[in-house]
Amino acid sequence: MLQRIRNSPPRYWLVVVVILFFIGLPTVIGSFQASEWAQVLILAIAIMGLNILVGYSGQISLGHGAFMAIGAYASAILVHKYKMDYLVTIPIAGLLTGMIGFLFGVPALRLSALYLALATFALAVVTPSLIKRPAELTGGVQGIILPPIDPPPLASDAFTAVTGTAMTSDQWIYYVTLAFALVLFWLAWNLVRHRAGRAMRAIRDGEVAAAASGVNIAGYKTLAFGISALYAGIAGSLFGLAVGFVSPDTFPVALSIQLLVGTVVGGLASIPGPLIGAIFAYFLPIESNQWVPTQTWIPSQIASTVEKAGPAVTYGVVLILIMIFAPNGVVGLITAGYARLRRRLRGAADRDSGQMPPDPQTG
Amino acid sequence: MTKSGSHIAAIAAFLVGLAACGGSSTPAAQTDVGVTSNSILLGNTIAQSGPAAAYGTIANAELAYFTYINNTQGGVNGRKINFKILDDGYNPANTVTLTKQLVEQDQVFAMFSGLGTQDQTAVRDYLNSKKVPQLFVATGATTFMADYGKPSTADSSIKWNYSIGWQPPYQGEARIYAKDVLANHAGAKIGVLYQNDDYGQDYLKGLKDGLGSNASMIVDSESYDVTAASTVAQLVKLKASGADTLFLFTTPGFTIPALVTVTKLGWAPAIYLNSVSNPQVYMGIAKANGAALKNVTSVGYIKDPTDPQWASDSGMQLYKTVIANCTTCNVNDGFNIYGAAVAWTMVDVLKQAGSNMTRANVVSIATSGLNETNNPFLLPGVVVKTTSSDHFPITQEQVITWNGTGWTLQGSLIDERGTIK
User: Fold this and answer.
1) Chain A closest CA to B303's CA: distance in Å?
2) Residue A128 touches chain B, beta carbons under 8 Å
3) For residue range B202-252, what is the model confidence (pLDDT) as tens digits?
4) Nearest by CB: B154 against A33, A147, A309
5) Is residue A22 part of a domain?
6) B195-208 in b/e burial notation, b at 16+ Cβ within 10 A?
7) Which domain holds residue A261?
8) Is A280 within the bounds of a domain?
9) Which of A321, B166, B197, B394 has its CA 20 to 30 A from that of B288?
10) For residue A195, what are the contacts with CB-CB under 8 A and spacing of at least 6?
């Protein structure tokens, strides 16, 4: 065991540092920042789901905002109408959304990339309108307001012992989200390294070759869609609980695009990618919208365009830059940089010995 | 993989591109968070980007009025008003985050004139549980007036004591239309086009309540979603229903094409147009696109900057001085004088609060102690009033008709105070 820990690659240590960072974060930042970071983790979960679909199985979805909406409404209805405990509703919402995603995956896998993009885009467009119809159940256009969530005494006392201040609802939600994020990231990490993950990657890289090797293409594609929707459903459920309000307008088409941009920026087919993508997708529009108008050197014409179009402009600029300079996303950039650094440190000897730097795609 | 990855990235980039196009100082003085000896901080969330970005100018006009007060009067009781505006893009989830930021990080004294029914509903429980005033929300949704002081539907321990609207409730406006129809078009067959959300449904309810036993005059009502591309199909159906009077409970983006479509269909009904989209600027666009604009009726409660009868009015001249503080504001846009008018009420409340600048005192004045008879931007006679039993600040409106180039005031102010429960 000790031997295994000593021999573990440095990235395992990085994981431990990141987890400790996220556990300790709310004790040093305010309650409001904790609510922001909870949103980041929620986005990270949804992007992780999308990454399994897009990055690992090679299908595309522009409709994951809709799956988040389904998850959020499932939780909100169970809490509001059936007075169910909010914690119980999270996995239920996830499973329900996963099932819907699985069923959606059945016809969807008959479509090739572009048509699948359109079909899922249609899902994102139509869902907010559909939610309004059964007004009895969904609260119609007014949405559903959820009661504030109080932290349980045990967690609250532990938090007070560490920081000396009372735990707020936002800080508790943060920890709930963190717990779900850790489990879901660990599951994803396991998935992509085992049979199902290998099969998905085989399908992505060459359907015919995968079929020839005996991979059940239809099965794995639908499975990927189902798992991906399950992640989005849990993210949506947490999102509704964290915001304390769900309404059709909370899940615009732009949310689906935000998720896809986060996936691409973080790095496709990578486990840490979604986390980096989520930090980007969450903070960039907020920061840029508040930062750009304060900058006098930016021509007022451009500044007002950015203000009017909102986050879309900033997303666009950064996405283009990423595509040019880091086609494999931020994680790809870091992996490549790290490999180059190590090669330089070790000298040219390794190259002579024929050892190749790790492939950033699968690393 | 790199190939399919860049494909996906390209699609994402394209879609983003697509979206971007679319798209005091006395010893007894008391103060609260957000108030210092020389400043008061107010916060606001509004849509300055996205589908409802046209409303964004309201906050800029409000800021222009506060700047005017700070520059000419040194603020209120020696305190300058600082106003922080954040763009929520009309998305309630953003409103929640940004409101938390303003309350917890920026430590605002109060939220002022936040826009959007869903958006402001989303933060009502939060602000009331924190006892942060949610003053004069920019929506005519009846719930912000009618449900004052009631317990939250989600958590009965939270009472809605810190929230209040300002503008006339949508239901009250619709009741005025009902009166006008009954008086002037008693045999009318009414067709209604409404937006399928709380705003449109509020108007429809007001119309039905106002017609009362004559509600059967409504021969057809058709709805559309905000995400819809056009309302042509609904208008064709309304015409086919035999309606001779058309009600448009629609936002500007849908009103303009609807007015044009009616003319193109060769249909000439009497049109009742909700005040939300009656600024003269929008009527001009509809006209330029071929709308006949015959027999159009609406209501108003604010002076129209384009109406020549106010040219020498002192309130209108003050408005023009104020709006000069905002370089991006169109002086003719009715939304800007709305902003100046609601900011005038806010300053009035702060002046009344005097040295007792606490949240509780300011809220109590705003929700139960208002009696403004001299707001210079409102039509003469419009009173902004709240009492301990009446939390509808403005309830008077006047019928206006389109004269081809502008609106003409008809009759006198109609007061709907006390009719909406």
Assistant:
1) 28
2) yes
3) 999 999 999 999 999 999 999 998 777 789 999 999 999 999 999 999 988
4) A147
5) no
6) bbbbbbbbbbbbbb
7) 253-363
8) yes
9) B197
10) none
Task: Identify the pLDDT of residue A354.
Answer: 59
| Per-domain boundaries in chain B | 31-168+310-390, 170-300
B12, B155, B197 member nearest A264 (Cβ): B12
Residues of chain B positioned with their CB less than 8 A from the CB of A39 = 97
Cα(B228)–Cα(A72) distance, integer angstroms: 23
Measure A61 CA to nearest chain B CA, in Å. 10
Q: Is A157 on the interface with B (CB under 8 A)?
A: no
Determine whether the interchain pair B49/A310 forms a contact, defined as Cβ–Cβ distance below 8 Å: yes
DSSP secondary-structure letter at B276?
Answer: G
* Residues from chain A contacting residue B104 (CB–CB below 8 Å): 30-32
Q: Is the ipTM of this complex over 0.90?
A: no
Query: Is residue A70 domain-shared with residue A162, that is, in the same domain?
Result: yes
Q: Which two tokens mark B34?
A: 């957000």
One domain, residues A246 and A260: no
Q: Which residue of A has its CA nearest to B6?
A: A327
- Do A141 and A234 share a domain, yes or no? yes
**Structural domain count of chain A:** 2
Q: How far apart are CA B6 and CA B12, in angstroms?
A: 10
Claim to verify: residue A332 and residue A206 sit in the same structural domain: no
Q: Do the chains contact at B105 and A269, CB–CB below 8 Å?
A: no
In a domain, A18, yes or no: no
Pick the CATH number of B170-300 from 3.40.50.2300, 2.30.30.240, 3.80.10.10, 3.40.30.10: 3.40.50.2300
At A348 the pLDDT is 55
Which three-class secondary structure string do you get for A143-193? CEECCCCCCCHHHHHHHHHHHCCCCCHHHHHHHHHHHHHHHHHHHHHHHHH
Decide if B237 touches A, using CB distance below 8 A: no
> Token pair of B395, please?
């309830």
Q: Min CA distance, A267 vs chain B (Å)?
A: 9
CA distance B92 to chain A (A): 6
Q: Looking at the partner chain, which of B15, B49, B154 has a beta carbon nearest the beta carbon of A257?
A: B15
**Considering the domain boundaries, does residue A1 fall inside one?**
no
Q: How many residues are listed for chain A in this entry?
A: 363
Are B154 and A145 an interchain contact pair (Cβ–Cβ within 8 Å)? yes
Give chain B positions within 8 Å (CB) of A303.
Answer: none
What 3-state DSSP class applies to B403?
coil
The dotted CATH code for B31-168+310-390 is 3.40.50.2300
Establish whether domains B31-168+310-390 and B170-300 are of one fold.
yes
Q: How far apart are CA B49 and CA B87, in angstroms?
A: 7
Question: pLDDT band for position A363 (50/70/90)?
Answer: very low
Burial of A128 (0-12, 13-18, 19+ CB in 10 A): buried
The residue from A251, A277, A311 where one domain ends is A251
